[in-house]
Write a structure and sequence with these properties.
Layout (H helix, E strand, L loop, with lengths): L4 E7 L5 E3 L15 E6 L3 H9 L5 H7 L7 E5 L2 E8 L12 E7 L3 E6 L4 H11 L7 H36 L5 H32 L6 H67 L14 H22 L4
Parallel strand pairs: 3-7
Antiparallel strand pairs: 1-2, 1-3, 4-5, 5-6, 6-7
Helix pairs in contact: 3-4, 4-5, 4-6, 5-6, 6-7
Length: 322
């Protein structure tokens, strides 16, 4: 198999598929059977081959190899262009850095493209190899839609748990790193919601546009995926509000902590200000200073400072300054 073709499959209609060689890539849009070709967007050979296939509009080819995509469903030529996003579950990757999957679908042919690996596609191909996969193109689309949606559930649940733990730790006291963790969770929430809102609309439109070649059961599965995404969007909206409230709570706790420290400094300043004034006054080295000829003057002055400081402390205490 060439580098630009990730999978070249012919579905048998019984849940299985046969992997075909590169020489068996279609040159004309298939009008029977069920073919699925999965391409790597980074390889220019894929663009060249797809542009040469008779029956595929140029706009669909451009969309499948576009650098930036947002979830959408658009009718192009004899098929539907479907762009979806899935959570990034690749090793050492951030799940909120969602991976795009682009598909151009007809009743007998699917061509899809990727820029990064998507585990949902690998899962469907594995099921086909085990004769437990989809039976036709409509079933492939419905299965991919379901799989992409189902894999989001754990990511959002984990995000909820992380925020709950962070919320509890902030309530127990501010620690280093909490603010950075909160900001990171909020950014993940925003990234996920950014693509899930248009994805819900794309899947809803898919269930309307594909009624001619999807069965009632397949349309119901697609609509159920749209309902699940609606719940995820509502959950992410709730998480975003919780992040904002936690940021406010974090700022309030920081302000209270700072105010308490400033209050202690103010009390100490109030006590030592007159004492500092007196020590400064009696520290000047000019004639006429009282007590310069007495050996007990220093100790009497120290005792006077202690009495003055103690008196200030008692006065502040009775005035309920602290």
């Amino acid at each position: 198999m060439s580098a630009f073709v990730v999978h070249n499959l012919e579905l048998d209609g019984q849940g299985g598929a046969k992997s075909l060689p590169l020489s068996d890539l279609p040159k004309i849009l298939p009008e029977q059977g069920c073919r699925w070709v999965h391409l790597d967007c980074y390889e220019e050979e894929g663009y060249t081959w797809l542009s040469s296939v008779e029956g595929i509009p140029e706009t669909a080819v451009e969309a499948l190899f576009a650098e930036e995509t947002r979830p959408r469903t658009v009718r192009m030529g004899k098929g539907l262009l479907l762009t979806l996003r899935g959570v990034n579950l690749n090793p050492e990757s951030n799940p909120s850095d969602m991976v795009s999957l682009r598909l151009w679908v007809t009743p007998h042919f699917i061509v899809s493209s990727r820029r990064r690996k998507l585990l949902s596609v690998q899962g469907v191909v594995k099921d086909l190899n085990n004769n437990e996969g989809p039976t036709n193109t409509a079933d492939v689309v419905a299965t991919l839609t379901e799989t992409l949606t189902d894999r989001m559930a754990k990511v959002i649940t984990d995000l909820e748990d992380e925020l709950a733990d962070l919320e509890e730790s902030i309530g127990e006291g501010i620690e280093s790193g909490q603010r950075d963790s909160l900001v990171q969770r909020r950014l993940e929430t925003i990234r996920l919601r950014r693509f899930l809102v248009p994805q819900k609309e794309a899947i809803n439109k898919l269930s309307q546009e594909a009624v001619s070649w999807m069965s009632v059961e397949q349309i119901a599965r697609v609509q159920e995926a749209a309902n699940d995404i609606t719940r995820y969007v509502e959950g992410l909206e709730s998480l975003r509000e919780r992040c904002l409230l936690m940021q406010e709570e974090f700022a309030n706790l920081q302000a209270e902590k700072m105010n308490a420290r400033m209050y202690v400094l103010s009390i100490l300043s109030g006590i030592f200000m007159p004492l500092g004034f007196l020590t400064g006054l009696f520290g000047i080295n000019i004639g006429g200073m009282p007590g310069t000829d007495s050996n007990a003057a220093f100790w009497l002055f120290c005792a006077a400072l202690v009495v003055l400081g103690g008196g200030q402390f008692v006065l502040m205490r009775r005035s309920r300054w602290f």
